[in-house]
Amino acid sequence: MAQEPPPNLVDAFPGLAVTPLETNMDDLLREFLTETTESLDVADVELVKFERDPNNREILNNIFRLVHTIKGTCGFIGLTRLAALAHAAETLMDKFRDGIPVTQEAVSLVLVTIDRVKLILGDIEASEGQEPQGSDADLIDQLLAMATQPVAVEAPIAAPAADPVSLVPAPIRTEAAPTGGKLIQTLERELLPGEVSLDELERVFRETPVETPQAKVPAGPAGAPAPARRGDDDASPTSSIAAQSIRVNVGTLEHLMTMVSELVLTRNQLLEIARRNEDHDYKVALQRLSNVTGELQDAIMRTRMQPIGNAWQKLPRIVRDLAQELGKQVELEMLGSETELDRQVLDQIKDPLTHMVRNSADHGLEMPEDRRRAGKPEKGMIRLSAYHEGGFVIVKISDDGKGLDIARIKAKALENGLADEAELAKMSETQLFRFIFHPGFSTAAKVTSVSGRGVGMDVVRSNIEAIGGTVDVQSRAGSGSTFVIKIPLTLAIMPALIVEVSGERCAVPQNAVLELVRIQPNSEHAVRRLKDAPVLCLRNRLLPIVHLGRVLGLVPEQSEDTFDTGLIAVMQVGNESFGIVVDSVSHTEEIVVKPMASVLRQVTLVSGSTILGDGHVIMIVDPNGLAQHVAARSESLAGQAAENGQANAEAEDAPVSLLLFRAGSQEIKAVPLSLVTRLEELDRTRIEQVDGRAVIQYRGRLIPVVRADGDTGYEKTGVQPMLVFSDDSRVMGLAVDEIVDIVESRLDLELASASAHALGGAIIDGRATEILDVSHFLHLAFVDEPETDRNAAGGRRHLLLVDDSAFFRELIQPVLRGRGYAVTACGSAREALERLASDRRYDAIVSDVEMPDMDGFRFAEAVRGDLGMTRVPIIALATANPGLAIQRGRAAGFTDCVAKFDRPGLISALQEFACAAEGEAA
Amino acid sequence: MKTCLIVDDSRVVRMVARRFFEGWGFDTREAADGAEALDACAIAMPDVILLDWNMPRMTGIEVLRQLRSWPRGTTPKVIFCTTQTDPAHIAAAIKAGADEYIMKPFDAEILERKLVEVGLIATVDA
């Protein structure tokens, strides 16, 4: 490594010394644009943090450095307009470091400046390097004005005004005369405020004493000392720390991905051949090829992965600006921003995510005063979280705002003609919520500049579904909404189950498949029919099932579906679980997804095609499309169930005793045992007909008898099993064929029933069972009897029933109505408070104690305190430890406390208190 | 071949400087922050370091102070690189052991002259 003569610069880089950056300007410009955009995104985030925590030096230094770097690099590209703007911002940031107070206006101004820089960058990119015409004097003036606010700030060593030379506007470029003299760096522009002339700096540089003993005083060009001797420490001269990661063109990666896809296909072909030929020599090599291909595919996939935080980066700024504009206080929390997903997927969800966060801030969160009134902190919370689950990334956006407005959704659905009143009345909350994903559907009362133009959630949904994802919403009035997005990790290659149905093969994406169940008639895995819909009972769940061949149109229309053989693939798509019936499953394969031809796009059940190892082209079934198909079918069933008042099929967790019996058919039916007073077996000769209705003498009184199967006639002889229902004064008999058993079971009401006399279905001992609605039979039995005739005081008494369990509300309402009360049921304490706020004329309130969000105690306190309703009786329904509940309940304002399933107790409490309270209610 | 370490958190600046240095026949390495710079020096001490002042994790001045306290840390020529036009700042850099300073943005001519001044390039072609 001898001394080399310095290369002739002009030869090596023609024109370098004059216009140094002309060569490869494109590369540099591209790098500059990328780097600056990244810096600006970070600066955005940091500034929002800074505004909240203005004393954090570290954040301030970060922002300062970013702006500083932008300013520094602009100069290399000759972007003077940008440089001037960045300089002004830097000057202000520097003043922050000196301690001028950080006001919201100041931060806003810097943010506006950043926006302007972005705008200019956009123009530069569009024009490939030309800085746009225009002036930023407005912003620069504001920035500098703010920076010179009268706050005691240490003056810089050489204040610009004190040095008239430095203000000389003309460029003072010393002629580049390299004749052994000094070449002084010059600025080819006017000095910016706050800058010192280079002469000044040069002077400082030359005059500063050097303290480090070994460091050389800058020497003149003549006295150039020999270069430092080299040691063995340069053993790895090419190692570069910064080069541990390199930037690769996206196009290159895409190409690699395509090649790997082809490799996977070829590998699959070879494996297919190997499957057919058992004995061969190349099996080991093939196995190895297969493994290496798999690893290669993983590695390429990893290069495409990016943290989801990249898509979130702009959100703090957006939320901050929005909060200011709307006069709200919003805290944005982001969890799991390091969760990685495919770049292509990330690009696709960036806009939907942004839109949804804006929506949460705009529509979800209330104004501070409303929040205070609702007993919540003034600052609203939006929480973004992301995590991996199976082959999916789950992204949740939740807010603690007011929740979706059901009434408005209904009104809007009517207005848009999406459903009529009757249909709406039948729908569950979940079904109603889904309306927000319809085109043109916005529930915002007024259109703001932010959102509310109704072009939002439908686009969000179609964007997410376009990449094989799902979006669902959960909401609770008063406590907020949560959107759950589920997206596949990658789009290009995915594991699939190759299934056969009606002689055709299809690919079913494996990440939607939970498990496979073999259909075995006469076993627990038999397909049953609940009404006309085929269902599979699987570990105490009822799954609607469809025949894949049927929905794909592979079997003739008129043929009857049989479910005696084959396999059921249990699928989970969003919140929807269902089963698809296939003839057989051949194997699993990593398939390369080929998008659908555009003419086939409207085929919603198929998402694309793929080439199998044996060369066949097969369709890829779209789990989303299937889920919609299944949902559409079960909604019509659920809708009818809603007629029975079972609007909300929430799960009731506590096991309930059920009486099982048969009536009319071999199917087991059930009623909650708590509603049954006695089980009787009576001689049929005792059944009499009075006015065309069946009655019996029972314990000294005449009670009506109704057949559970809907018939009216009775056998003349034999023994008639009968359930006796009573609620004090009303007693009736329900005639059944056979009383089977009493079991403890959880009621899921999963599949609603189509008939009027049933509440829905449940799984009992692995079997689909219909649960009968007792109120229906009470109604039948006392059809002519005016409901209020037993209320001597006259006038219907009005009760407010508060319970979060839909099941319990349905259970208790008929009992109360049967007693002549008018009942208004609420699913939450907040809903009840809202009702009371608008209408106080209730004779009594019956409230559950244990409820999510606001429990019964707090509810009672709110009624007594906030609403000032001191006299209305509130009766608590306690499930656990009634003693404790009574003690606490009295303090909270409960009048009485009864056990949840003690109906006579409740009735007598109501009689005692609701009548006594007449004064206030009237 | 002479070696050079370019220390700057901006890829753009490193890219520009690398072109210049490679044009003069330097073997060029890069570091994106102060800590990386010290690591790079620990592996192989360069002949010259173009050192940015304002970087994440560790400022240029801290790098310089640490480097100069190392046994062999005085060998590299250090050209301090900054946009900061504060004389006190330049003074601090010199005190910490910088051999030259250069203002951003710089061009090849200026940088070359600085290299001549620290004795790494013998002459400048007229």
From TrEMBL, chain A:
Residues 493-632, 655-783 form the CheW-like domain. Residues 208-240 are annotated as: Disordered. The modification 4-aspartylphosphate is found at D848. It catalyses: ATP + protein L-histidine = ADP + protein N-phospho-L-histidine. InterPro entries: Bact_Chemotaxis_CheA, CheA-like_dim, CheA-like_homodim_sf, CheW-like_dom_sf, CheW-lke_dom, CheY-like_superfamily, HATPase_C_sf, HATPase_dom. The keyword Chaperone does not apply. SMART domains: CheW (SM00260), H-kinase_dim (SM01231), HATPase_c (SM00387), HPT (SM00073), REC (SM00448). The modification Phosphohistidine is found at H68. GO terms for molecular function: phosphorelay sensor kinase activity. Involved in the transmission of sensory signals from the chemoreceptors to the flagellar motors. CheA is autophosphorylated; it can transfer its phosphate group to either CheB or CheY. This is Chemotaxis protein CheA. The lineage of its organism: Bacteria, Pseudomonadati, Pseudomonadota, Alphaproteobacteria, Hyphomicrobiales.
From TrEMBL, chain B:
PROSITE patterns: RESPONSE_REGULATORY. Pfam families: Response_reg. The modification 4-aspartylphosphate is found at D52. GO terms for biological process: phosphorelay signal transduction system. InterPro entries: CheY-like_superfamily (IPR011006), Sig_transdc_resp-reg_receiver (IPR001789), ST_Response_Regulator (IPR052048). Residues 3-119 form the Response regulatory domain. This is Two-component system chemotaxis response regulator CheY. Keywords: Phosphoprotein. Coiled coil: none annotated.
